Amino acid sequence: MSTSIQCGPDQSFKIATLLSALSPRSFEFLDLFAVHFLLSVPADEGSLAHRRHVPPRLIAPESLTDHLDLDRIFGRKMPLHIDLGCGDGSFLCALAQRMPDKNFLGIERLLNRVRTSARKAAGLENVRLLRMESFYAVRYLLPAESVERFYLLFPDPWPKRRHHRRRIVTPDFLSSIHAALQKGGSIYVATDDVDYFGIIKEVAESERGFAISDGDVDLPLSRFGLIFRQKGASIHWLELRKISPVK
């Protein structure tokens, strides 16, 4: 049996904000119960509610379980690149300027970072933003084989042992990434933490369906990338390219 929760603009926005702040484990109930949140925040740019709640370039999903309609969101059909945890939007917007023939989606959980990214992306037609926990968005909101490339730059290494379960790179995460990638698509991962890099590589090697390489590419510097370079820290890169279905 399917349950729908209807709500107005104010209530629906609060629900979306609350749910987007939860961890991936908090959404496991969605696999057990057919609960469908219908968000009624207007998509019309001229509406008062839209101006009040949704900054420019920010997506207001109509559902937290249905796949995003990417062609409608961007208004064109072009290869999609996604910056997971886009932070202040520096990397996202620099890359979007460099590649105007691609669509770019930045996913970020923290509101202040989303607002900063929205200001930087205001003049870029090929950028959209989604305030959501990254793993949740990848697992539930992205259509299968819809993404050409993911970027996961400097994810929190959660160095304390008791916090390891909070790390984003897990077999379940990579399985969801694999499902969302087009054939031949890839995810670039960067970290300054050598121990975490080793763990990421171990997890990647345990998952079938990816070819692993060093990911030595010419990309703009992110905010953290610039900080680590100024400190003289080594940056470790990994590219996982989809080559076959996960068994």
Labels describing this entry:
disordered N terminus, 9 helices, 22% strand, 247 residues, two-stranded parallel ribbon, alpha/beta
Alpha plus pi helix count: 9
Which percent band covers the strand fraction?
Answer: 15-25%
Any guess at the CATH architecture?
3-Layer(aba) Sandwich
| Structure classification | alpha/beta
Task: Describe the overall structure.
- The chain has helices spanning about 10-20, 50-55, 70-75, 90-100, 110-120, 135-140, 170-180, 195-205, 225-230; strands spanning about 1-5, 35-40, 80-85, 105-110, 125-130, 145-155, 180-190, 210-215, 235-240.
- It is of the alpha/beta class and about 250 residues long.
- It has a single domain, classed as Vaccinia Virus protein VP39 (Rossmann fold).
- A 7-stranded mixed β-sheet has the order 5-4-3-6-7-9-8, sandwiched between helices.
Can you summarize this structure?
The chain has helices spanning 9-20, 48-53, 70-74, 90-98, 111-121, 134-141, 171-180, 194-206, 223-230, and strands at residues 2-6, 34-38, 80-84, 103-108, 127-131, 147-153, 181-191, 210-213, 236-242.
Topology:
Elements (H helix, E strand, L loop, with lengths): L1 E5 L2 H12 L13 E5 L9 H6 L16 H5 L5 E5 L5 H9 L4 E6 L2 H11 L5 E5 L2 H8 L5 E7 L17 H10 E11 L2 H13 L3 E4 L9 H8 L5 E7 L5
Parallel strand pairs: 1-2, 3-4, 3-6, 4-5, 6-7
Antiparallel strand pairs: 7-9, 8-9
